[in-house]
Amino acid sequence: MDESVPRVTVAVIERETFAHTKRSLESLYVSTTLPFKLVYVDAGSPRSVFSYLRKEARRRSFQLVRYDRFLWENEAKNAAMPFVDTEFVVFVDNDVLFAPGWLEALVACADEEQAGVVGPVTCLGDPPFTVVHAAGGRAWFEETAAGRSFITEERGWDMPLAELRGDLTRSPVDSVEFHVALVRSELVRALGPFDEALKTMWEGKDFCLLAGRAGYTVWIEPAALVSHLLPHALLRGALDLRFLLHRWNRRDNIATVAHFGRKWGLRADDAHGAWISRRATIRPLELLAGKKLIKALRAIKRRVGGMTQVIVRMFASCCERYDLRTKMATDRCEARDRRTAPTVAGRTV
């Protein structure tokens, strides 16, 4: 086999922010020595980010696909697939940093284990590669008299990497996080398009469940290490804030959980799905004031009465109105984007 011919296409998907675009792309090229093709799906990024990506696409000869509106992650994956002609495709979020050797390790695992899906150990935050976000997990259905529930367990969640690393070994798992995930291209085509009704969450779990049902295995490879960076929306402009609120709004969280439940036959009041939906919702107040202030206000509300409690209730009411106004403004922007978006699927640049 000619080792100069790429076996892998890296498909970059914009997840929830544009702020880390340059840092992530530079990390990808610096930390990757295995030959690869690159498809970058740019969905509604600011002019400055699009200009940077267009310049890099020309300099590095990768495929840039531009949309003039935000895309959900599964929409973006489907947009990337027509440009994939390699044995493997690696779906990568645009807010990820890569440790050296990450891609070689994923491909080696897929080859040696004949895996359909391989995920790295994913860390969280800055500085990178310090706290584990996901290291493979269990996912199963539990049948009870009340109906069917979906249960998940994530290994290593929020643990220091230094404490956990000695216990991590290459192993089969039920699911991996899709911040970075290597998939056999034949598997994607066999399963058909990614489910675009899964807008805000569980895209990776859904795909891994489908892969398992089709007879493919899912593996975690600790020799591959990446780090997911948290968003800093308010520090990077209004469009980043819009994108973040679009990605994690309560309406689409609820719709996503409901669709996942119908698809997999879960009971209507599945507590796990409802908890995930609430937990994943981002409110503008939390971005503006920070979680510590929110907790402090709630503590005040619990512990004091009289005029102070009235003031706290008034403040909370103002925050709720701000939340509603922001959501209405976001909805108007999304409606405008739909009206002005090109009718074609996207344009290559």
Helix count from the secondary structure assignment: 13
Q: List unreliable stretches of 5+ residues.
A: 319-344
SSE-based structural type:
alpha/beta
- Determine the N-to-C terminus distance: 31 Å
User: Could you name the CATH class of the largest domain?
Assistant: Alpha Beta
Q: Note the run of SSEs as H and E.
A: EHEHEHEEHEEEEHEEHHEHHHHHHE
CATH-assigned homologous superfamily of the largest domain: Spore Coat Polysaccharide Biosynthesis Protein SpsA, Chain A
Short recap of the structure:
Helices cover 44% and strands 21% of the residues. The chain has helices at 21-31, 47-60, 73-80, 102-113, 161-164, 185-191, 203-213, 238-247, 250-263, 271-280, 284-289, 291-303, 306-340; strands spanning 8-13, 37-43, 63-67, 88-93, 96-98, 117-124, 132-134, 137-144, 147-154, 171-173, 180-184, 218-228, 347-348.
Explain the overall architecture.
With 349 residues, the chain is an alpha/beta fold. It has two domains: 8-232, Spore Coat Polysaccharide Biosynthesis Protein SpsA, Chain A, CATH 3.90.550.10; 234-340, no CATH class. It contains 13 helices and 13 strands. The strands form two sheets. Strands 1, 2, 3, 4, 5, 6, 7, 10, 11, 12 and 13 form an eleven-stranded mixed beta sheet that branches. The protein has a two-stranded antiparallel ribbon with strand order 8-9. The protein starts with 7 loop residues before the first strand and ends with a strand.
